[in-house]
Amino acid sequence: MKKVLSLVLVLGAVFLLAGCGNKPSTLVCSQKVSIVDVSLTTNFTGNTVSSMSMKYVMDLSKYSDSLISTVSNQDYCKTVQNAMSQYTLVDCKQALEGKSMVITSGIDITKMSKSDLTGSPSATKEALEKQGYTCTLK
């Protein structure tokens, strides 16, 4: 659950930072939390978030095939949604890929206030890097 809490904190930082500019940009940030690689993608138009998505990749290579099978039957989309109840996940999917569980989802920004969707991509990048993320601003 710590990985989910970290994600919530990161998403909050994305929404709290403000700045200026009008060009489209994409911020991709990743961090390894325990056995999970978390990747956040935020698309900006100027200083306004236009879309967000996330991807979790859980490394299950240290587990037996029977345990991996049991893990794959759990609903991680529901778990993530419950942990991030202030956000609405859209098109959440999970798939077992080899010995990794991959969870991908968008975040429904239409359910968020306009003030939560304003932020400078470069300031957001800097704040996330201070939290241990590795970010690329494109």
Task: Please give the count of helices.
Answer: 4
Radius of gyration, taken over Cα atoms and rounded to an integer in Å: 15 Å
Q: What's the helix-strand series?
A: HEEEHHEEHE
Structural class: alpha+beta
Strand residue percentage = 35-45%
Helical fraction: 25-40%
Mean pLDDT, all residues:
82
**Major pleated sheet:** 6 strands, antiparallel
Termini separation: 30 Å
Multimerization state: single chain
- How many strand segments? 6
Sheet with most strands: strand arrangement: 4-5-3-2-1-6
The geometry reads as: globular
Low-confidence stretches: 1-9, 15-21
List keywords for this structure.
alpha+beta; single chain; 138 residues
Give the arrangement of secondary structure elements.
Elements: H1 2-16, E1 24-33, E2 36-45, E3 48-59, H2 65-72, H3 76-83, E4 89-97, E5 100-107, H4 121-130, E6 134-137
Antiparallel strand pairs: 1-2, 1-6, 2-3, 3-5, 4-5
Helix pairs in contact: 1-4
Account of the protein in words:
By secondary structure, this protein is an alpha+beta fold. It is built from four helices and six strands; from the N terminus they run αβββααββαβ. It has helices at residues 2-16, 65-72, 76-83, 121-130, and strands spanning 24-33, 36-45, 48-59, 89-97, 100-107, 134-137. Strand 4 and strand 5 form a beta hairpin. Helix 1 (2-16) runs antiparallel to helix 4 (121-130). The chain is globular, with a radius of gyration of 15 Å. The model is unreliable at 1-9 and 15-21 (pLDDT under 50).
